[in-house]
């Protein structure tokens, strides 16, 4: 899609996603970038300078003012509210442009995204879509992310197809169309994402405990993973984020726990699952048990700011790392 783009949040995910946008958008258009951590912006410029114009903005307002597309990926719902609704520095302070497409990719609760999206749509600041992602940093780097999209407002049946085509044109720069899931109304993308993460955050702990148990019972780690991979315990998390160092060469555990998805953020995501389940009358038994362990890991110096698979060090009480 032609025109300038703004990208907000250049963290583990956003840095690679914005890099793919810069490489694939028109080389004549400008990519405005903004992150509260300015060194991330400077590192981005030095890495992608050759791909086309990049401007570091002083605020989201500045980044969005002359942009037809705005993409954001920041940690929490509070951060999303600040990015969009801050009266001085947020997108809401930029000139109105109802044609602006806004893709919000963070993992937050559906109610918060609906409130932000409705505020922006009703003030004429753009068409806000929740489009959380899955696949982690490797898929962000490879441009093969999956997206769960919540787009439709109550009176948008007639424009839905045009809007879907515009959304698709942008997402295809960061992800794989066969993994774009059109979930329905605003907030529905996040409802799907939260269900998925209920599983992945719980699984990672389950895998760590099961692998530790098997290894302590004398099974060689790679053989144990091979057994599980070819049996009913097989999972994406076991195959790609296996917490046992050396078992899966590309996993964070085999690469000094490189991020990845921070241990502290596990609490956020699993907490979103606990709340979402309770809101619809489902008792989140598994997540409530898992979150207690994640809370301890999030305060364990062996796990803080490392990939969540470092839970391995915590549950095995490994002290010499
Ligand atoms: P991160 O902490 O690595 O990066 C977040 C970035 O946002 C940081 O650079 C931070 O400085 C910036 N930021 C925070 N508040 C901001 C604000 N108000 N304005 C501008 N920038 C701001 O986090 P991440 O791992 O990239 O995750 C981001 C989101 O994506 C989270 O909601 C997470 O749950 C979700 N997610 C992460 C992964 C993953 O594997 N890391 C996978 C899928 C989804």
Automatic annotation (TrEMBL):
Where along the chain is the active site annotated?
A: 193
Q: Which Gene3D superfamilies match?
A: N-(1-d-carboxylethyl)-l-norvaline Dehydrogenase, domain 2, NAD(P)-binding Rossmann-like Domain
- SUPFAM superfamilies the record matches: 6-phosphogluconate dehydrogenase C-terminal domain-like, NAD(P)-binding Rossmann-fold domains
Q: Which UniProt keywords apply?
A: Branched-chain amino acid catabolism, NAD, Oxidoreductase
User: Which catalytic reaction applies to this protein?
Assistant: 3-hydroxy-2-methylpropanoate + NAD(+) = 2-methyl-3-oxopropanoate + NADH + H(+)
PROSITE patterns per UniProt: 3_HYDROXYISOBUT_DH
Q: In which pathway does it act?
A: Amino-acid degradation; L-valine degradation
Q: Which InterPro entries match?
A: 3-OH-isobutyrate_DH-rel_CS, 6-PGluconate_DH-like_C_sf, 6PGD_dom2, 6PGDH_NADP-bd, HIBADH-like_NADP-bd, HIBADH-related, NAD(P)-bd_dom_sf
Residue ranges of domain 3-hydroxyisobutyrate dehydrogenase-like NAD-binding in the record: 187-300
State whether keyword Chaperone applies: no
Superkingdom of origin: Eukaryota
Which top class of enzyme applies to this chain? oxidoreductase
* EC id: 1.1.1.31
Task: Please list the residue ranges annotated as the 6-phosphogluconate dehydrogenase NADP-binding domain.
Answer: 5-165
Gene Ontology MF term list: 3-hydroxyisobutyrate dehydrogenase activity; NAD binding; NADP binding
GO terms, biological process:
L-valine catabolic process
Instruction: Please tell me one Gene Ontology term that the record gives under cellular component.
Output: mitochondrion
What family does this belong to?
Answer: Belongs to the HIBADH-related family. 3-hydroxyisobutyrate dehydrogenase subfamily.
PANTHER family noted in UniProt: 3-HYDROXYISOBUTYRATE DEHYDROGENASE-RELATED, DEHYDROGENASE, PUTATIVE-RELATED
UniProt name for this protein: 3-hydroxyisobutyrate dehydrogenase
Q: Which taxonomic lineage is given here?
A: Eukaryota, Fungi, Dikarya, Ascomycota, Pezizomycotina
């Amino acid at each position: 899609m032609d025109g300038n783009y703004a990208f907000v949040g250049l963290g583990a995910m956003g840095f690679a996603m914005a890099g793919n946008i810069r490489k694939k958008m028109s080389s004549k258009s400008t990519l405005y970038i903004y992150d509260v951590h300015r060194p991330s912006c400077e590192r981005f410029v030095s890495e992608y300078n050759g791909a086309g114009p990049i401007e570091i903005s002083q605020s989201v307002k500045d980044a969005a003012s002359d942009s037809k597309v705005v993409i954001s990926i920041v940690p929490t719902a509070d951060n999303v509210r600040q990015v969009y609704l801050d009266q001085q520095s947020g997108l809401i302070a930029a000139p109105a442009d109802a044609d602006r497409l806004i893709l919000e990719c963070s993992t937050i609760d559906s109610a918060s995204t609906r409130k932000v999206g409705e505020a922006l749509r009703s003030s004429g600041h753009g068409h806000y879509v929740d489009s959380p992602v899955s696949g982690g940093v490797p898929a962000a780097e490879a441009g093969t992310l999956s997206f769960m999209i919540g787009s439709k407002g109550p009176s948008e049946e007639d424009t839905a197809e045009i809007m879907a085509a515009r959304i698709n044109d942008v997402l295809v720069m960061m992800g794989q169309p066969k993994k774009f899931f059109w979930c329905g109304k605003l907030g529905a993308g996040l409802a799907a994402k939260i269900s998925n993460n209920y599983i992945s955050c719980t699984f990672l702990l389950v895998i760590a405990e099961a692998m530790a148990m098997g290894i302590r019972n004398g099974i060689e780690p790679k053989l144990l993973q091979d057994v599980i991979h070819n049996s009913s315990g097989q999972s994406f998390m076991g195959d790609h984020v296996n917490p046992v160092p050396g078992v899966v060469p590309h996993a964070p555990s085999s690469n000094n726990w490189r991020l990845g998805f921070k241990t502290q953020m596990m609490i956020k995501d699993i907490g979103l699952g606990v709340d979402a389940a309770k809101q619809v009358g489902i008792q989140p038994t598994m997540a409530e048990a898992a979150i207690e362990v994640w809370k301890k890991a999030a305060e364990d110096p062996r796990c803080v700011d490392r990939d969540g698979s470092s839970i391995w060090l915590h549950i095995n009480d490994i002290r010499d790392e």
